[in-house]
Design goal:
alpha/beta, about 230 residues
Length: about 230
């Protein structure tokens, strides 16, 4: 499998412990080059694992979804930048938070990604939060805000990828969770799409969690996703 294809797949290490996550990365071996370390794993050895993955030549996406007062976000991003990870997420709710993140990064090569609307949410969920916008409308608003603030890209579902690409142009990263192979179970994701569809609509990277990390044969599952990506 070509490295350019492997780089498009980010496997989410959404597992209870670093021991389990290490076992999965060992099993996936050279087939997977990019991993996401999220909140669940951060509290059980995830940061040490992230650094070990970097030392072994892997790329690492630290999914912290930061949202706090500006000073706290700035300092947290500065600390994350020192770890040498590749991607870091910040909630894209407001310009102050985004500006603080950019300031905290400084000149580090860390790529900042704004979370637009979680792929588990639909219009009813947004209404409960007090928003009258449809998910696609809010995603676009936050994507434009992130680009204006100097972010490198966004987290957005494949269903909004084409609109985000049109609104932000080339060079702006679109990282898409909620990816399923044709016929795959949606689980708790409300806005899913297939690898080929997301890539055709402008996504750069695809985040896949349970379809790989909970599979009976994670390596075979990863290869299935990579094969579908290669056809895109």
């Amino acid at each position: 499998m070509k490295d350019t294809v492997r780089d498009k797949l980010i496997v989410a290490l959404d597992l209870p412990s670093a021991v389990q996550a290490r076992a999965l990365t060992d099993r996936l071996g050279d087939e997977v080059s990019f991993y996401k370390v999220g909140l669940e794993l951060l509290f059980s050895g995830g940061l040490d694992l992230a650094q070990d993955l970097k030392r072994s030549g892997k790329r690492v996406f630290l999914d912290m979804k930061l949202l706090d007062i500006g000073n706290t976000v700035e300092r947290a991003v500065a600390t994350a930048a020192q770890l040498g990870v590749d991607f870091l997420t910040v909630h894209g709710h407001d310009r102050k938070t985004l500006d603080a993140a950019v300031k905290g990064r400084g000149t580090a090569p860390l790529k900042l990604l704004a979370v637009t609307v979680l792929t588990s949410l639909d219009a009813n969920d947004l209404a409960e939060q007090g928003s009258t916008m449809e998910p696609a409308e809010l995603v676009l608003r936050r994507a434009r805000l992130a680009r204006a603030a100097g972010f490198d890209g966004v987290i957005a579902s494949g269903q909004e990828a084409a609109a985000v690409r049109s609104a932000t142009g080339p060079g702006f990263l679109i990282v898409t969770p909620g990816i399923r192979l044709p016929g795959g179970a949606a689980g708790d994701q409300a806005r899913i799409t297939t690898p080929r569809k997301a890539l055709a609509d402008g996504a750069n990277h695809l985040v896949v969690g349970r379809p790989i990390n909970a599979a009976a044969d994670p390596l075979a599952a990863a290869r299935s996703f990579l094969s579908d990506i290669a056809l895109g």
